[in-house]
Amino acid sequence: MFNAIKCKFANFVLDRRFSEIMIGSAWAMSARIVATCFGVVISIIIARAYGAEVVGTVAVLQSFLMLTTIFTVLGTDTSMLRLIPEHLVKYSTSSAFNIYNRTQLLVITVSLITGTLFYFASDLIADRVFSKPHLSFYFALGSVFIVFNALKQLNTQAVRGLRLIKTFAFMQMLPQGFNLLILVFLGLLWPTQDVPIYALFGGFSVAGIIGCIIMNISFRRRMEPDDQVQRIPVRTILSISLPMLMTSSMTFVMSQTGVILLSMFRSEAEVGYYAIAVKLAALTTFILTAVNFMVAPKFSELFHSNNMEELFYVAKKSAKLIFWTTTPILIGFVVFGKPLLQVAFGHEFTVAYLALVLLAMGQLVNAISGATALFMNMTGNQNVFRNIVFFAAAINVGINLLLIPRYGINGAATAAMISIVAWNITTLFYVKLKFGSTTGYVPMPGWLVRQTKKKRA
Hints:
The protein is mainly alpha-helical. It has one domain. The chain has 19 helices and no strands.
C-alpha cells in the first residue's frame, strides 16, 4: 500500500500540467496545517484551562461573527476569485484593482451599518434567539469587530485572485496565530474567563488590518501608468456576488446550524463538545481547502479561455489528490478518535466520538466530489449552485430540528453529514449532465480500470 501511495504522489509531482496547482497547494496546505494546529492548541488550552462552557461560548460567538460576515461581505469574497483573474487576463492590473477597491469600500460601509444594528440589538439576540441573556455583552462587543472580520474574509480570498501563493499562505495563519498569542499573553497576565473571547476578537482584528495593507501594496507594485481600466458598476459586481452570497449563507447554515440550534436546545457544555468534534473533523478538509484555494483562479482562467479539456483535467486531478491525502485522516479518526479526544481535551469530551466519525464521513464524500462549489461559481453556474445548496440547507435545518432535541450532538452531526452528501451528489449530477464530465474522483482497483478501457476500445 505504501508503494502505491508513493507511486501516485510521484505521478502528481512529475505532471507538468498540474505542477502549478501542486506547488500552490503545498504552500496553502502547509499554512493550513499550521493554522489548524494553532486552532487545536487554542481549543485544548480553552478546554483544559477554562472548561467546556467557555468552549461553547466561544463557538457561539464565532458562529455569530461568521453569520454576520457572510451578509456584510455580500458574496464578494467569492466573486473576487472570478473577477480579478478575468480582468488581469482581459485588461490590466489597474482594472482588477479598481474592482477590488470599490468592493472593499462597499464591504466596509455595509459592515459598519450592520455592526451598529447588531450592537443595539445585542440584548434581543442573546435573550430571544439564544435564550442566554448573560451573553448580551459579548454579542455587543462582537458587533464592533464585524468590520474587521469582513475585511479579513475579503482580503484572504482576494489575494488568491492575484496568485500570491506565499502571501496567501501567510494570511491563512494570521487569525489563529494572533488568537493564540493573545490568548497566552492575556491568560498569563489576566486570569479571567473572558480571555478566550477577547483573544478571538483580537485575532480577527489584526488579520483584517494586515490583509488590507498587503492587498493594496501587492496591487500597486504591479500597476502601470498606461494600464487599460474596464470600469464596471457596483450593481454588476453585486449581480455576480449576490448568488454567491446565497450560496455562502446556505453553506454556513449547513456548517453552523448544529452549533446554533444546540445552543438553543442544549447546554453550553454540549455545544462545546460538538464544537470540538467539528474542529477535529475539519482536519479532513484542510487538504481539500488548500487545493481549492489554488484551483479557483485556475478554473476561472481556463473557463474564460474556453479550454474545457484542461479545465476538467485540473478538476479531476485535484479531486484525486484530495482523496488520497484525506482518507488516512478519516481512518485515523475512526480508529483513534476516542483516545484522541480523551488525551487532548479530557475524558468528558469522549462523548463527541460518534459525532466526530459522522462528520468525518460527510467530509470524505466532500473530498471525493472535488471542487464542486468553486467549479460552479467560476463557470457562471452560481445561480444553479445557489438553488442546490438552498435545498441541502433546508434538509439540514429540518433534520437538525427533528434530531437535536432528542439526540443532541449526534443528531446535529447526522444532519450535517446528510446535507453535505446531498449537495455534493446533486452538483456532480448537474455538472455531468451539462458538461458531459464531472469534477469527482472515485478510486477503482487496477483490474477494473483495465476492464473499463478494454470495453471502451
